[in-house]
Design brief:
- By secondary structure, the protein is mostly helical.
- 77% of the residues lie in helices and 0% in strands.
- It contains ten helices and no strands.
- Helix 5 runs antiparallel to helix 6.
- It is elongated, with a radius of gyration of 23 Å.
- The N and C termini lie far apart (59 Å).
């Protein structure tokens, strides 16, 4: 990581070395873009390094000094980005959540009809839950406001799929779609304690069965 940071800095410096004539006309925009890219690179390296250190050494063992040393970023610079380790980990978790929501949207868009979209999304969500089961880090990160926002987004995402399925007559209408979305997400949290992906798929099948119109 230290080498990554030094290489990025070198590239940033190199990118603004131009002839005097080009400097006058191009540097403001080029400099702004370079600085922004550099900041993103520093932030991403910090998030990845902090998560890796926690996974290796445990939550309470990681310090800002360790993160600075591993990334090659000075402590003073690191503190300009984040006030402490917990803030770094929360930012990492927010990035993870955003990635997962984008993955679920991609899964939805790949399916051909309402029921297949719902089933594909629920299965993908259950597998994510299975892979990221409870740890010391998870216990810390699932307390933040960002988690509540993400949970609301996810509930709305599933609710829309359920509404679409109900309009096609494939999902029950006697219970509000919002309640059914909550049912799905709570039921699938059980995936975190299952031992195999096959068991996760069975859980999804059972959950889907509860969504069918009563006969």
């Amino acid at each position: 990581m230290g080498k990554f940071y030094r290489d990025t800095t070198s590239q940033a410096n190199h990118s603004v070395i131009e002839s005097p004539k080009r400097i006058v006309t191009c540097v403001p925009k080029l400099w702004n873009e370079t600085i922004e890219a550099h900041r993103r690179a520093v932030r991403e390296a910090t998030l990845d390094t902090a998560a890796a250190l926690v996974a290796e050494h445990g939550l309470t063992s990681v310090t800002m000094s360790q993160i600075a040393n591993e990334t090659g970023i000075g402590r003073a610079t690191l503190y300009k980005y984040f006030p402490d380790v917990e803030a770094i980990l929360i930012a990492w978790h927010e990035r993870q959540i955003t990635t997962h929501l984008l993955q679920l949207a991609h899964v939805r868009d790949e399916a051909v009809d309402a029921v297949q979209r719902l089933e594909a999304v629920l299965q993908a969500y259950a597998l994510m839950t299975h892979q990221h089961h409870g740890t010391e880090l998870a216990a810390l990160l699932h307390r933040g406001e960002h988690v509540a926002r993400a949970q609301h987004q996810l509930t709305e995402f599933v609710r829309e799929l359920l509404t679409e399925g109900a309009e096609c007559g494939e999902i029950r209408r006697d219970i509000a779609a919002e309640e059914l979305a909550s049912y799905c997400l709570h039921a699938l949290t059980a995936a975190s304690g299952l031992r195999s992906k096959a068991a996760v798929r069975r859980l999804v099948t059972v959950t889907l069965a509860g969504l069918r119109p009563p006969r």
